[in-house]
Amino acid sequence: MSSKTLLLGNEAIALGLWEAGCRLAAAYPGTPSSEVLESLAERKADDLHLEWSVNEKVAVEVASAAALSGLRSAAVMKQVGLNVAMDPLMSLAYTGVAGGMLLVVADDPGPYSSQTEQDTRMAALFAGVPVLDPATPEEAREMVHLGFALSEKYQIPVILRPVLRVCHSRGPVSPARERVATPPPRFVKEPSRWAATPRFRYQLHIERDRKLAELARDPLAAETLRWLVRPVPVEGVVGSRRKAPLAILASGAASAYAADLLREVGVEVPLLAVGVPFPLDAAAVADRLAGFRQVLVLEETEPLLERLLAGRLPLAGRLDGSVPSAGEMTPDTVAEAVARHLPQSQKRFFAPSPRRPVAPSAPEAPPTLCAGCPHRASFWALRKALPRAIYTGDIGCYTLGISLGAVDTVLCMGASISQASGFFWAHRGLGEQAPPVAAAIGDSTFFHAGAQPLLNAVQQGAAFTLLILDNGTTAMTGGQPTPGTGERADGSRGEPLDLEALVRGCGVTELAVADPLDVPATVEAIRRAGAAAREGKVAVVICRSPCVLSLRERAGAVPGVSPGACNRCRLCVERFACPALRWTEAGAVIVPESCNGCGACIAVCPQNAIGRAP
Amino acid sequence: MSKRTCDIVLAGRGGQGVLFLARVLGEAALAQGLPVRVTESHGMAMRGGSVRTTVRVGECLSPLFRRGTGDLLLALDAGEEAGALPLLAPGAERVVNTGFADDIAREAGNPRSANLALLGAASVRPGFPVGQEALEGAILSRSRPRDSERNLDIFRRGRAAAGNQEEG
Hints:
The complex is a heterodimer of chains A (614) and B (168).
Chain A (H helix, E strand, L loop, with lengths): L4 E4 H11 L4 E4 L7 H9 L5 E4 L3 H13 L4 E6 H17 L5 E6 L13 H8 L3 E2 L4 H18 L3 E3 L3 H4 L1 E5 L17 H4 L3 H19 L2 H4 L3 E4 L16 E6 L1 H13 L5 E4 L7 H7 L5 E5 L5 H5 L6 E2 L14 H11 L2 H4 L26 H12 L4 E3 L22 H13 L9 E6 H7 L1 H10 L3 E7 L28 H7 L4 E5 L4 H16 L3 E7 L15 E2 L9 H6 L4 E4 L2 E4 L9 H5 L5 E2 L3
Parallel strand pairs in A: 2-3, 2-4, 4-5, 5-7, 6-7, 10-11, 10-12, 12-13, 14-15, 15-16, 16-18, 17-18
Antiparallel strand pairs in A: 1-8, 9-11, 19-22, 20-21
Helix pairs in contact in A: 1-2, 1-6, 3-4, 4-5, 16-21, 17-19
Chain B lengths: L5 E8 L4 H14 L4 E4 L10 E8 L12 E6 L5 H4 L3 E9 L3 H8 L6 H10 L8 H11 L2 H17 L7
Parallel strand pairs in B: 1-4, 4-5
Antiparallel strand pairs in B: 1-3, 2-3
Helix pairs in contact in B: 1-5, 3-4, 3-6, 4-6, 5-6
């Protein structure tokens, strides 16, 4: 029996934050980062403030003030969230911090749940802040401690960058250590730093670069550069490793894949792992790898180490095509790259992966809106009310409205509203022939980045229909609370934010609230909004119905299909496509175990063949 | 070559309890003193689509393994078997829910626990890395109290249905 527990990488990071005496953690949910704050909330500490901030920029700014007060603080987000927070981060890199400040930024190579597979290590390079790249959940926890130590020593924010495969893998983690006691808050006024004007900013830039140069050679950072597989000197040959043909240099999760592979296959290729890819002590890396005829670099997702080491070593990697330039690093991509660079004498160790003949099969099931999801009904009503519109979409479960033909664009958080404005202006010259424009955005996304484009649209005189799909939660990432619920990260309750008042506050005069599960009424509300948009207004319909995942029981009785009335048009299974509707030889049927009883399909059937028993 | 891990693929659809099963298997291995790593998928992948996770029992740094090297497949949905085949080594054990696991779970009164019937059937296969006692302990600790006895029953019925009366 071991005393270790099986922790998710994100839980291990939360454990590290708790142990390190973190006093404030602010986050916006986003896959694969969301479980960090949730897990921290379960650990509780009286001197720890937790919050789901409305967006990542706000989270970093809130956390920064705790760090300016000498406390340890953290901001947690996914990689595209850091784009939103780049503004405060760029500036913080100059001003620095007083207490330790850690940004936990989870990357999504693949990507699996993101609009890009951007590499946060490159953002760290751009901002000029150190970044740590853990390979396993255990290492991620230790790097929280390392990150705070480096942040305090050099007074600079530090990024911990776990990739999805670290965040969302479980590994054995040893029990919690004692929580570090930290001193009380003390903000020391220093306007030339905390409120620096451009003249001082120039000095701060010089100071930032000095910090980075020193940190690169710090003993704590240097410890993370280590051999996972040591070079073996050949007996009788002095300095024989200098004749070795191949070594691997790997950062983060890629070093775990490489270490597993080398052990499994049994080839002796030295493997040097990097824990602090920026600032990199390039001279130290070059020294360790001097003499190898080829150094294969494995990293996600951009060739950062390759660029930082260019000219110092004979490198192979993403830049020369040894590793595909896009996509997640996997044991297979690692094996293929290693096999390609092995000397002929060792290639026999790599039997090509046995590829089984795969029988033609049904394609993998794509994700879909849940049975009973109110978004499906909202999109159905939107298509009914404004069939020829340009539909701008946004980030959340409701991105899946693509398969209902109700989402034409998805750019980034909040862009549904700004793009609706832009489409309106782009087509204005067509006069009566201009297509209607309709945006759809979720409640959490609206609070994150929707209010500003909405007030902008109203102020500029744009005209379109906007659906705010208010299901009272941040559903895609696991149901975190929104300002509209009044619930806080620690479970305490505040005043729910009045969404209607916020929308009116943005200058909107045409506002209706509809229950999307009442399909005919919602169609009517959207039609009226569309008419107001033709009259030159931004018209908003709040489609309000709780997320089915938050319901404890069915919304209503399960409807049935009357076989005699079904004319087998398949519209319900193909166009409405609720997972509870199945096509059988007898026509459409509703699967009771899957059905949530929302009843939206009743209004969908043109034959009125779907109904509830009287 | 020295393969020191037992590499398991769990395949199913969102909502079938793939993550629950992976967690039970991982915690059982750990309780038995075996090193183990488990992948999970969250977010967009959990909206009713195909869900595939891997469990590696044995010394390793990553829960992922190469295509064509998996030792065992547990498919909670027969339709998900084909998609998982490329991960498996030739001759790998496959335990597929052809409907028997659903029948067992329904008969035992908890239709949502078909995953545990399948685990029971898989756990008697030769080479399965975790023993009955550790698995049952993990099932008890992971189940809601009101489901725990019934879930244990479903797991045991799954074992019996696999036609092997040996106690593991």
